[in-house]
Amino acid sequence: MSNPVLVCALRGIDAYEVLAGALKGLTQCRERLSTSGSLPQVVMALTPEVTFRQAILFFTEADFVTVTLQEHTYHSFQSLCFCFSVGESWRCRAESLYTYLHAGAQVLCTVLLIKPGVWSQNLARILRNLHLEKFTVVGMKHTNLEPAIALELLPSEVKQDPAALGAHCTYLTSGTALVLCLQRPNAVKKLMDLLGPEDPKLAQALDPCLWRAQYGTNTVHNGFYGSKSYQMAVRDTKLFFPEGLCCAKCQMLEEEEV
């Protein structure tokens, strides 16, 4: 204990996983170089609970640096400042790190579109699985997608390939789709984790239980569209449910004026 130590409070998306990976790389680097004295010894908190206990030992709220965060990532950070968009301007609100750690994950909304030909045969099973994953359905409607809306749902790489673009648009507008607005903590990432990669073959290789592995056949007929980010979830919610949702207002809905 004769030498000083450096204590850092870090934040980021998937912070624990990312930091653990970085420290693993540091350890491997030390082992290759065989110079253990030249690189620092590092330990990290492994859970939010341990993070909280250690943070209050070393820091006061005045020690933390307040910076601006984009709204679509605020729920994934342990931070002092949240930033929300209002039109073209930004409104910032400071919030204690300790208060945020106590509050836990915020309830969010995301959108799941079940593509034509999939929902009519598998709806009961899909709804049951959503219930098991602790999603609440707060909006549901049938829709025949207009080409312009179908285009909005496609990733940028598809739009750059005319053949793929035509195939996707033709399929999405070929029949009735079912659109669900889903609510739960960390809803956007959880839904993406359930769906898996856009390519059902890749999804099958990763995990046969992924939804696109079960219901998809190729990159066009892959069963589902899901909002890939917080920002897209807000956009999709407003696009498909302008009349509102069947749920109590949560922080996301109030601040995004959904």
TrEMBL record:
SUPFAM superfamilies: Nucleoside diphosphate kinase, NDK (SSF54919). GO terms for molecular function: kinase activity. PROSITE patterns: NDPK_LIKE. The keyword Transferase applies. This is NDK5 kinase. Keywords: Kinase, Transferase. Signal peptide: none annotated. InterPro entries: NDK-like_dom, NDK-like_dom_sf, TXND_domain-containing. It comes from Xiphorhynchus elegans. Belongs to the NDK family. Transmembrane segments: none annotated. PANTHER family: DYNEIN AXONEMAL ASSEMBLY FACTOR 8 (PTHR46135:SF4), NME/NM23 FAMILY MEMBER 8 (PTHR46135). Residues 107-247 form the Nucleoside diphosphate kinase-like domain. Gene3D superfamilies: Nucleoside diphosphate kinase-like domain.
